[in-house]
Amino acid sequence: MSDIPRSAVARTARLVSLPLGIAGRTALGLGKRVGGRPAEIVAAEMQARTAEQLFSVLGQLKGGAMKVGQYLSVLEAAMPEELAAPYRATLTKLQEAAPPMPAATVHSILATELGTRWRATKFREFDDKPAAAASIGQVHKAVWRDGREVAVKLQYPGAADALISDLTQLARIARVAGVWLPGLDVKPITDELRARVSEELDYDLEAKQQRAFHRAFDADPRYRIPDVLAHSEHVIVSEWIDGRPLSDIAANGTQEERDAASDLYLSMLVNAPERARMLHADPHPGNFRLTPDGRLGVLDFGAVNRLPHGLPSAIGEFLSYALAGDSHAMADGLRREGFIKANIPVNPDELLTYLSPFIDPLRHETFTFSRQWMRACATHVQDPRKPEFLIGFKLNLPPGYLLIHRVWLGGVGVLCQLGGTTRARDIVLSALPGVVEGILPDPV
Q1: What are the tens digits of pLDDT across the range 370-396?
Q2: Residues 2-27: pLDDT tens digits?
Q3: H-run or E-run covering 324
Q4: Could you give the domains of the chain?
Q5: What is the pTM of this model?
Q6: Could you tell me which of 174, 239, 187, 245 has the C-alpha nearest to residue 211?
């Protein structure tokens, strides 16, 4: 593959091949069952083939299609195990790898962006084989002219057209996601991505954001954020970070590694808005590494939420009143911020009951995030037998909180994949503005 397939017709055809492929395998599976093959074996074969097609199509298309796949890989923790298991490994591959660009294409990009003598003037060594792939670019390992190991991130040719095409088409066929991820609405994700396409394609802006994070955390011995050495519109050269991706720790890590990674990850998530005045807005595990010396390495700053005043202090207030059991004060604050529209009646006690499972991690001295807990939360808010079920239909998400909500949801998904025991209460409440200390109950 020389670059991203650019034709909207071609890209749409590949995206549509996902539901068509699933339908075809369903018909084939039915035929096999009629022929006497056990249903369990047929189902397993179909799920494996569907998962492989998911990786192939989204990975080759890259662009918005691959990015949506990466988001799905974060949120799989909320799915029932029998649905999640066939896709977990396949979706995780989208976080770390995808079909690469040929070396000739890579060399052409570098010649355009860094000069025709880029290899002689910029690098001592350059590995033509990519070290990692992302939604709109891939990364190569190299040695900079001063001897430092560096990561060279290159944007795929045609990435802009591909993103626009994918996000438009994915919005139209979002209902297809229900075939392999029941209950997940892809359309709001694609709407948000479309609004941020121009920023993620701007590597000059990304380099500026990465440098800001580097300055904010450079003195903190718990973190390793690579500095940017050079950049252009389509290339970023930054310091190389060795380490194990959180996806590997989630799959193979010891409990000690899971605990350490979870504490570091959560702390970064809630402290960055105050220290960097930005929120890292691409929380999937492939963007984080546990380094050999025990630090958390953070990568990819193309998607951030700029928060010049930090997180809204109202968040700390909501949580304080919720933890204290003051449902009326909590509901009043949510209404002031626009989470409940003025003309919508809501029972405060039912609202607190509805939200209670989500704040449970902050009631304890330590808390173990798990897939089981996340699935229980999802089941809780989707149970029509409960009187608070309709609360979810009455809540609104103000535009200013949209990205914060999405990042925190994704972050919790990562924590549940890690399965670590964290000091969530201390980490979160010590970082959030607006916490009402005098009313907080003791941890249970």
Answers
A1: 989 988 888 888 888 887 788 888 888
A2: 454 445 444 444 434 444 343 343 33
A3: helix 313-324
A4: 8-97+174-184 (no CATH), 103-158+198-239 (3.30.200.20), 313-439 (no CATH)
A5: 0.76
A6: 239
